[in-house]
Structure formats: structure tokens, C-alpha cells
Amino acid sequence: MAANTKNSFKFVVVGGGIAGVTCSEQLASQFPSADVALVTAAPLIKAVCNFKQVSKTLEEFDVEEKPSTVLEEKYPNLRVIQSAVEALHAQQHAGHRGQRSYSQSAVASTVRMFENDDREVRMPYRTPTLLTVDGLKVHYEKLCICSGGRPKLLTQDNPNVLGIRDTDSAQEFQKRLSQAKRIVVVGNGGIALELVYEVEGCEVVWAVKDNAIGNTFFDVGAAQFLIPTLNTDKPERAATCKRVRYTIDGQPAIQGPDIATGVDRLGQCRAFEEPGSALGPDWHEGIRLRGAEEVCRRVSVEYETEVKRIYTQQEFLLSPLASQTSGSWPVYVELTNGKTFGCDFIVSATGVVPNTEPFLHGNNFELAEDSGLRVDDHMKTSEPDVYSAGDVCTASWEASHLWQQMRLWTQARQMGWYAGRCMAADVLNETIELDFCFELFSHITKFFNYKVVLLGKFNGQGLGLNQELLVRCSKGLEYVKVVLSGGRMVGAVLIGETDLEETFENLILNQMDLTPYRDELLNPNIDIEDYFD
Ligand SMILES: Cc1cc2nc3c(=O)[nH]c(=O)nc-3n(C[C@H](O)[C@H](O)[C@H](O)COP(=O)(O)OP(=O)(O)OC[C@H]3O[C@@H](n4cnc5c(N)ncnc54)[C@H](O)[C@@H]3O)c2cc1C
Ligand SMILES: NC(=O)C1=CN([C@@H]2O[C@H](COP(=O)(O)OP(=O)(O)OC[C@H]3O[C@@H](n4cnc5c(N)ncnc54)[C@H](OP(=O)(O)O)[C@@H]3O)[C@@H](O)[C@H]2O)C=CC1
Which of 127, 308, 388, 484 is most exposed by smallest CB count within 10 Å? Predict the structure, then answer.
């Protein structure tokens, strides 16, 4: 049951993804008597469960997609408003708090708007407001924007170029794939790595800009270690997916390989165009990513190439390229390496754009180069009392030399949680230190069925020539890379069951001079954990 039937809240959080849900849970539990609202476009929210702190900075957790009522039941002071925000008037704060000065005309126009509205005139203060597409006005004292990101597509509005972000787009991909004989995957990051490994029954042409696969996570050595896996069969997967997924009417729907049923049920009740929350680590578990052919995995990688032009079938047939390519396909991709491929569709796995719309209009948000909302070390944006966390924001503080932002699930959780704590500290007039999780970058994931742990400057980011790499590799078993700078460990890539993460994390955090131990560090005959005990 919702505690607050009015539209005025002490804390408002926008976005039902990991960042927004974690932030609102943090606030609702810390201030049980304060009204908290979570405004989100999608009917389902994403909540962290089975959280496990693996080591000082490494964490693992599952994420469940749940109906929003679950949150309201857990926190009586938390109200979930399912509606997309279409405007933010953050500047109304300035007039009444005097924190910033804005032009008279800007303030006057917002005041006029409110005087025409009976409900607003009765408000004791002219509080800053969010407007939703359903016409609801939501007033806040502190706001946290966690609206995530959307795929940065190669081209917009081409029905044969798909991006994968949320449940809807994954289902669209699965549906199209089931009819497909060949797809072209463009991009060299997380989604591409997952797709080329998972897709079966369909030829995959993988076009990457770089000279090795997985540039956002790996160097050439790790890529060499992984690439033979593409030509081996996948191990059998457990029959069911351990997480329950829900339809928007709140019923558990999709479980394990039964996704076809789930698609139909979701398809029937899907009546919204709003962005959902981003998929996460196990989005393809239990989903049948199978094309129309009777083949296992068939991937060919086109290195150091980009998309030159995408042709419709009609355009292609009229082009000089038509005489050089056989078969008839709905869409054709011309690459900069001179090759052209016809395919059923193209997956643009080319990164994320922060979802800053519609918050920018009429406000004074500072944006970073990647278009994210700039936040300081207290997750504050440049607008008063507006915080931000997760994929939509860009960390703009002077970061620890061992941390960098990547738009990942773990960072969405950490930022959401820390933003909630900063908002609380602000209200309580307390000081708060930057959380320890921002000391060292750490990420656990799985690629090509190998456990992958990334620590610190795992690819020597920003180190230039000031780095030394130590590598140990056992084909098909493990790949271990350590990045040293000035004799100190600053990063590591661990692929396989290496069991080295905790020791290396400690060595990175304590910045011990490892010069005397360099030759022993990756010696497989030495128990390194004991060695540094
Ligand atoms: C296919 C895929 C696989 C991934 N795999 C991994 C992985 O293995 N490991 C990992 O760490 N990360 C992974 N990620 C990245 C990870 O999912 C994201 O970094 C993380 O979920 C971002 O969380 P968020 O809360 O910031 O944003 P989102 O999850 O995008 O949530 C944004 C929320 O805001 C809402 N919203 C948007 N606009 C509005 C509006 N105007 N009004 C109201 N609500 C709005 C949306 O409905 C949504 O609920 C993956 C991403 C994808 C797409
Ligand atoms: N297991 C995990 O941890 C996973 C994490 N994710 C996360 O989900 C988000 C979305 O994934 P994804 O879309 O793969 O994004 P990523 O940022 O991981 O990768 C994008 C890739 O596309 C390349 N690229 C960008 N523009 C172009 C272009 N015009 N032509 C060709 N290549 C291009 C990038 O190269 P460059 O870097 O040179 O710009 C990069 O290789 C990311 O935040 C990712 O970290 C996704 C799946 C799994």
C-alpha cells in the first residue's frame, strides 16, 4: 500500500533500473517516515538480490525483474509511479532557496505556469517539479535521475538495424533471429562478445574496428586466448534459468527455455513504447538464440573494418556491387575493407548513449563529452538538489588512478546506493566521503563461458609507455595478465578459474613495490596467496 497519495515527496528517483531501484531502496530504508517516490517508465523494476561481497571491491549479485508492487510492499513509504517523465523544472528550486541565480524571465515564466494551476497555487512553496506523460506533477526536495541509456545505433530508423537493450529489444532480436540465415554483428564490446558466442543456427559475420576481438575488455593476448572457443561446441546448459521473469501484469512468465511462451504472453500485453531497464549478465540464459539453419556456431570475424554503407535490397540491386554478390537478402552491408555482405539483419552492438532526454530542456545540466550528466564526487549534477547515478551519468570527479567508469551493472548499483547516501547526508547536514568502491575498478563477468575478472587499469588505460605486462597463459584453461607501473601492480585480467582475484586485488590496493618478486608473481608453481600472506 502506498503511504503517500499526494504528489509531493522528500525524495524522488527517476528510473526503475538497478541504479534507480537501489537508490530509492536506500532512501526508503534510511528515512522510514519520509515520502519517497520512484518514477519509472517501464512496468517492471530491476532489483538486486543474492548480493555477495566477493572481496574488498569485487561483488556478485543476481538481478530480478519484478512488478513494482513488490517494492511498495517492502517499503510502506515508497510509492512507485509508473509513467515516463516528460519534463523537469529543476530551476524552481533556485528562486525559493537562493542557491543559484537565474534570469528573471526564466523564473517568471515558470511562476506563471504554476499560477494557472489550482493544485500548485495551494502548495506552500514553489517546489521543483517533474511532469509525467500522464499529466502528473511530482514535486521533490531532492531528485536522483537514473534514466539509464539507450543503444547508440549505427543508424536510426532502419528496421533492419537492431540494438539490444531491454526485454522488448531482446525479444525482437530473438524473433528475427529465428527466421535468419545470416546476420552481421557490428561492434566489439560486451554485447557483441556475448552474441557471437551464443547464437547458433545462423551464420554470423562479425565486423570489428580493431585487430582483435573484445577491445572494451581485452587486449590482443586475451583475444587470442578466447578466439579458439568460437570454433568449439558450447557446453550443455542447465535446463532452466534460475531467475523468474515477469510479465507486465505481474505474473511470473518466462522460465528457462520456454521463452517462446513468454514472448507470446509479453507480446499480448505489451502496449507501451517506453524504454525498459537494461538487460544484464544472464539475459541470454534460457533464451533460445537460434537461427533458421541446421548449423552450430558459424562465426567469421572481419577485422579492422567499419561499416561504409548500408543498402536496402532495392538500393543494392541498383548499385554496381550487385553483380559481385550472390543471393538475395533484405539488407546489405558494405564494409571499409571492400567486402559486402547480404544478411537478414544487422545488430548494432556499438555502445550506449545516456538517456538525458527530457531532463535537459529548460535546465542547466552540464554534460560530459559522452553526453552523460556530469556528476561530482557526491553524485550531484550541476542543478541544485538534482543527483544522478548509473548509465545516464558521467563521473566527473578526479577519480582514483585505479578506477574508471564503465557502464556496467555493478557500477549502476554502487552509484545508486552511494547517491542515496549522499542525498541522505545532505538532508542531515552530514559530511560523507567518496565510497571505497570507487577506489579500484573491479568487474566479474563471463565471456565465452570463461569466468572473467577485470581489476584496476586492466588494459593499461592511460598509462602509455609507463607499463610492464606479465602474462601467463594455458591454452583453453586460463589467461592471466598483470599490469605493472613503476614496479607496482595497477591492473589485472584473469580469465578462467585462476583463484587469483583476491590476492591481486590486495596487491593493487596496497601498492606494494613488486620489483623483487616480478619473476615469481605468475609462477604457477608458487602459491602466490601464501607468498604474500
Ligand atoms: C544486453 C546487455 C547485457 C549486459 N550485460 C551486462 C553484464 O553482463 N554485466 C554488467 O555489469 N552489465 C551489463 N550490462 C550493462 C548493465 O545492464 C547496465 O549498465 C545497467 O543495467 C544500467 O542500469 P541503470 O539503472 O543505470 O539503467 P537502466 O537499467 O537502463 O534503467 C533505466 C530506467 O529508467 C527508466 N526511464 C528511462 N527514461 C525514463 C523517463 N523519461 N521517465 C521515467 N523513467 C525512465 C527506464 O524505464 C528504466 O527503468 C548489459 C547491458 C545490456 C544492454
Ligand atoms: N558482460 C558484460 O560485462 C557486458 C556488459 N555490457 C555493457 O552493456 C553496454 C552495451 O554494450 P555494447 O553495445 O557492447 O557497448 P560497449 O561499449 O561494450 O562496446 C561498443 C563497441 O562498439 C564499438 N563501436 C562504437 N561505434 C562504432 C561504430 N560506429 N562502428 C563500429 N564499432 C563501433 C566500440 O569501439 P570503441 O570502444 O573503439 O569505441 C566498442 O567496441 C556497455 O556498457 C557494456 O559494457 C554488455 C554486455 C555484456
Answer: 308
